[in-house]
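Continuing the series of single-chain predictions for the mutant panel. This is the parent chain; the variants come on the following pages.
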Amino acid sequence: MAKAAKKTGIDAHQIREAYIDYVLTNNEPPKSVYLFAKALKISEVTFYDFYASFIAIEKSIWEDLTGKAIAEIQRQEVWSQYSSREKILSFFYGYIELLKSKRSFVVYTLKKATIRFSTPEVLHRAKEDFQNFADNVIKQGLDSGELADRKFLSKRYKDGLGIQFVFILNFWVDDQSKDFEKTDEAIEKGINLSFDLFQRSPIDNLFEYGKFIIRNGKLHEKMGI
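Parent structure:
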């Protein structure tokens, strides 16, 4: 890629920006790689040195935005002092703030999804990166005792946050409130609910009590209980 950039004077960033400008101007992708490359005054071969397809460009943009949001919040001085709940909340607030600069592109890519609130192809890598980040945060919460370590269930916590990831993005796309206040509310309510479920509750105590009864069943029979 570096060789191609040096030879042609173009790089991946310039191709991404040209693609964004095209789709936002025309509300559709270029008709072909050939025509897009011709407009950039590069060959198809040079385009393929950087990207395999137009969807690959969109995926890379989402992946870069997600990685940037994660890196930015982890650089905060207070990051190490945050609870796992606060870390996920901080990610979503920071992510939406970052996406504001690309809102038109976000709307374009997500509105193409035929089934809303499912995971469109363009988000697959970005969602995976988020879930890897969330999994590390969850593990810290499990180690500290902030979150309940439930057999078979705790490993699915990241999947629950992955659902929130897609929901919040789609909610923001449709949000018409001032300064996207409704999205902030959706983040707060959705993530707090998720972490309320991840934490220990009376149901866990009931479950533990049920296991105790089962383990000590014969003792209770002898005692006439």
